[in-house]
């Protein structure tokens, strides 16, 4: 428990530093964009390559992946079922709402939490794989189809995951782990140096966004925000715990890791997708805010119970 609290304090301190420099005017909102892009396109893929390359991913990607997928499926399905009947949402709005209810912030928060609180960034690998290889390509294809009024081709569905740098970094790390290959020292050293920049850049960017980003409010029904937030912070972790512990036999630290990763807030890029396709932007934004605030006491409580 002490290690988890230390991890939270460390993460909060760096986020607070980002908010402070934004508040003082040292940087503007453009700094959040720059830091996020550097972390997304350069540092995070490097971190995933080096982390997964030295990790035995067989256990991480088996039972953990099944439990993670179950939590996502149940949360998304419940939202779609309720929102379609209660608020008569169309396909694009249902896609964004389902993502808001189940898509974990595995990048900006997942990697730091896994690295500093759980002791190994590899714990977030199942979530990253599921989201980057399956959920995001499928969701973007459906949004494309909803906006353009035509179905995506099979080739577009297959190519989309390979355009994401986090997907590429994850796959390279998994291949290195499974095959036992080792990067040459001349390659590994600079990759590790760049990867070390990922977590601080993400946390600083998040702090800037919290201080200068948009606030809460809008025309979306509060019941819909409440539903999406409750599914993300309540139903999804509960389903993951039930599947992982009761059905797959996980216990101890591995069980804590998979449940904590599922309890992380809605990813910020869901708001980006919603804005791009003009579907449920307020729902995405407000769910991100609610779940980001709510995940802190939730993760502390989960650690106290399962740790």
TrEMBL record:
<keyword id="KW-0472">Membrane</keyword>
<feature type="transmembrane region" description="Helical">
    <location>
        <begin position="123"/>
        <end position="143"/>
    </location>
</feature>
<feature type="transmembrane region" description="Helical">
    <location>
        <begin position="34"/>
        <end position="53"/>
    </location>
</feature>
<keyword id="KW-1133">Transmembrane helix</keyword>
<keyword id="KW-0812">Transmembrane</keyword>
<dbReference type="InterPro" id="IPR004776">
    <property type="entry name" value="Mem_transp_PIN-like"/>
</dbReference>
<protein>
    <submittedName>
        <fullName>AEC family transporter</fullName>
    </submittedName>
</protein>
<feature type="transmembrane region" description="Helical">
    <location>
        <begin position="254"/>
        <end position="275"/>
    </location>
</feature>
<feature type="transmembrane region" description="Helical">
    <location>
        <begin position="287"/>
        <end position="306"/>
    </location>
</feature>
<dbReference type="Pfam" id="PF03547">
    <property type="entry name" value="Mem_trans"/>
</dbReference>
<keyword id="KW-1003">Cell membrane</keyword>
<feature type="transmembrane region" description="Helical">
    <location>
        <begin position="164"/>
        <end position="181"/>
    </location>
</feature>
<feature type="transmembrane region" description="Helical">
    <location>
        <begin position="94"/>
        <end position="117"/>
    </location>
</feature>
<feature type="transmembrane region" description="Helical">
    <location>
        <begin position="6"/>
        <end position="27"/>
    </location>
</feature>
<feature type="transmembrane region" description="Helical">
    <location>
        <begin position="65"/>
        <end position="82"/>
    </location>
</feature>
<feature type="transmembrane region" description="Helical">
    <location>
        <begin position="193"/>
        <end position="213"/>
    </location>
</feature>
<feature type="transmembrane region" description="Helical">
    <location>
        <begin position="225"/>
        <end position="248"/>
    </location>
</feature>
<keyword id="KW-0813">Transport</keyword>
């Amino acid at each position: 428990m002490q290690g988890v609290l230390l991890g939270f304090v460390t993460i909060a301190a760096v986020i607070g530093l980002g908010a402070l420099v934004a508040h003082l005017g040292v940087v503007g909102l453009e700094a959040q964009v720059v830091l996020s892009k550097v972390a997304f396109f350069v540092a995070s893929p490097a971190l995933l390559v080096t982390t997964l390359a030295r990790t035995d991913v067989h256990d991480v990607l088996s039972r953990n992946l099944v439990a993670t997928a179950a939590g996502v499926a149940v949360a998304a399905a419940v939202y779609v079922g309720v929102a379609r009947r209660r608020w008569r949402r169309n396909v694009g709005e249902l896609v964004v709402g389902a993502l808001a209810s189940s898509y974990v912030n595995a990048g900006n928060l997942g990697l730091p939490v896994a690295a500093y609180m759980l002791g190994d960034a590899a714990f977030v690998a199942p979530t990253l794989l599921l989201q980057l290889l399956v959920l995001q390509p499928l969701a973007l294809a459906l949004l494309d189809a909803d906006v353009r009024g035509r179905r995506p081709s099979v080739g577009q569905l297959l190519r989309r995951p390979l355009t994401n740098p986090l997907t590429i970094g994850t796959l390279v790390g998994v291949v290195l782990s499974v095959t036992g290959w080792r990067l040459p020292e001349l390659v590994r050293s600079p990759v590790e140096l760049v990867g070390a920049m990922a977590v601080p850049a993400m946390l600083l960017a998040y702090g800037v966004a919290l201080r200068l980003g948009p606030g809460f409010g809008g025309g979306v029904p509060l019941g819909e925000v409440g539903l999406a937030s409750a599914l993300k912070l309540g139903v999804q972790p509960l389903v993951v715990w039930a599947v992982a512990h009761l059905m797959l036999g996980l216990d101890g630290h591995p069980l804590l890791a998979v449940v904590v990763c599922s309890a992380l807030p809605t990813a910020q890029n869901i708001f980006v997708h919603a804005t791009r396709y003009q579907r449920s932007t307020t729902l995405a934004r407000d769910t991100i805010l609610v779940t980001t605030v709510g995940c802190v006491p939730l993760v502390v409580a989960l650690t106290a119970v399962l740790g």
